[in-house]
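Sequence in, structure out.
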Amino acid sequence: MSVDPLHFKYPELTPFQYASNRCITGIDMDGLEYYVSTSGRFLRRGININSHNIYIEQRIYEAHHIYHPAVDRVARQVGKPTQTYENRIEFEEKIKYTQIAPWMTLAFSELALGVKEGTKNDQTSPVKYLSYEGVPKSMQSKVESTFWCAAFVNYVLEESGYIGETVNPLAVENWNGTWREWENGYEINRPSYGAIVTFGDTHMGFVVGLSDDGTKLIVLGGNQNDEVNVSEYDIKDDFKYYLPNGYQPKEFENEEEFLHQSYQGIIKNGGKTQ
């Protein structure tokens, strides 16, 4: 195949440079509009690294231009030996959306910090959720024993660019409609990845998954055994689920199949939430 047409299209490169610059890769020989390039970067989901949550980054580029900015990004799962290729591709399609529930990036960062009561450290003490500027001054507290599950949710949302509960962000009752409706969010009828879940009037956190049998909810939350952790709770009739205004979940985010696989880290067994 002659490279003359490419030379006329890209005059800054001589025909002799195509070999060293590998621009021949960009020739659209098969009529495809894009080609896949593996970057060699490793991606992971969640906090703990294991064979279930390590992915290799790949990028899809326009076929006619090697150095064109990425059009899309996909992540290829490193599957188990017994897993079929078709299943890996199906899951790959679901995890390629790297910005689902974007506030969960901060939620997992707080988990990684090891926030818990008694640390006496500005970064790892839950007092920061009770006293930052998103909490009305009359409600701010420096006391760790204050119930802080709702404060954690509010902090994560607002520091991620969303609007939390503006009247009393520390009260679960103000989020779930017992006292008043949360004006900056909307209720959904089933668990969705990253959704806020309220346990009646007693507790709240973020949905990160479902147990294999679908009877337990996996929740990343604050004030779970006096710390930020991921715990498993029996699903009850008074659970309600919410998303912030302006966010529409992808179709797969509330599918049980996806939620069974969406979190692969350490799970604790509930514990004290007040």
